[in-house]
Design a protein that fits this description.
single chain; GlcNAc_PI_deacetylase-related; two-stranded antiparallel sheet; Rossmann fold; 9 strands; about 40% helix; alpha/beta
């Protein structure tokens, strides 16, 4: 099936993420802003997040199904028109790569060409103008995030998608925010502050800085939708830590989102609109 391009100058934005909740953390404001402007927004998830850290009671149920349901709730908060899952299982972030679950392949084991073809089908169906992905480091190095970067680049070539924007954060700004908040809030044990502060991208590599301050409430609601990822056996996880930040400070911290366009002309400056300059 082919979906025609929206009329009246509207565009189609496809946000491709590794796990349910990644969209809330990195691109929710941009997605909500595009939807509010009348553009079509599509969320594509590589995995169902079945290896996400959570509490014991939640893990005893079907975590993957719950996380996909949470992603749909998050999408509703952002005005997303369509949510799709490519059918892969979470590869996890520890040193051990677990066996594939019945009937599923862990995303990092999937051939890039195979996964790219699945994504390219969706990009063609949607006549996508912009595809959101991750930078080459996968942000903080998660194996599924790195694979998203690889798959997105290949799929965009197959589908002829005009623009790929790699979601990222200027690492100097991130380091300052994390270290400042750590003075008043104790981050969960699995949160590697120093590692996080050396992740993502250098400021000079940022090509798009998007003002999403008006959509901070929608972004916060999208984070809140991923309730299974707030706690792990009684201890706060990163999402819960972010949601405990008071609104004025939250809006200041999360009121901008950043992207890197590998095709952005040198010297063109930092763009403020993800669709600017498209034919």
């Amino acid at each position: 099936m082919t979906t025609s391009r929206p009329s009246g100058g509207r565009r189609t934005l496809v946000a491709f993420h590794a796990h349910p909740d990644d969209e809330a953390l990195l691109t929710a404001g941009t997605m909500a802003k595009a939807a509010a402007a009348g553009h079509r927004v599509v969320l594509v998830l590589a995995t169902n997040g079945d290896l996400g850290l959570t509490d014991s009671a939640t893990r005893a149920r079907d975590l993957g199904a719950q996380r996909l349901a949470e992603a749909r709730q998050s999408a509703d908060e952002l005005g997303v028109s369509r949510v799709e899952w490519l059918g892969y299982a979470d590869s996890g972030m520890g040193p051990e790569l677990y066996a594939d679950p019945p009937g599923r392949t862990r995303f990092v084991r999937a051939p890039v060409a195979e996964a790219a073809q699945r994504l390219a089908v969706l990009l063609r169906e949607e006549s996508a103008d912009v595809l959101l992905s991750y930078d080459a480091r996968g942000g903080y190095g998660h194996r599924d995030h790195v694979r998203v970067h690889e798959v997105a680049a290949a799929a965009a070539r197959l589908a002829g998608t005009p623009r790929v924007l790699e979601a990222t954060i200027p690492r100097d700004l991130l380091a300052a925010a994390v270290r400042l908040s750590a003075r008043v809030y104790r981050y969960p044990p699995e949160f590697d502050i120093e590692g996080f502060c050396s992740a993502f991208s250098a400021r000079r590599d940022i090509t798009h800085r998007i003002d999403v301050l008006r959509f901070a409430a929608a972004k916060r609601a999208a984070m809140r939708a991923h309730a299974s990822q707030a706690l792990a056996d009684g201890a706060d996880r990163t999402l819960a830590a972010f949601l405990r930040i008071p609104r004025p400070a939250y809006d200041l911290i999360f009121g901008r989102e950043w992207f890197r366009d590998p095709a952005h002309p040198a010297g063109a400056g930092v763009a403020r609109d993800i669709f600017a300059g498209l034919p």
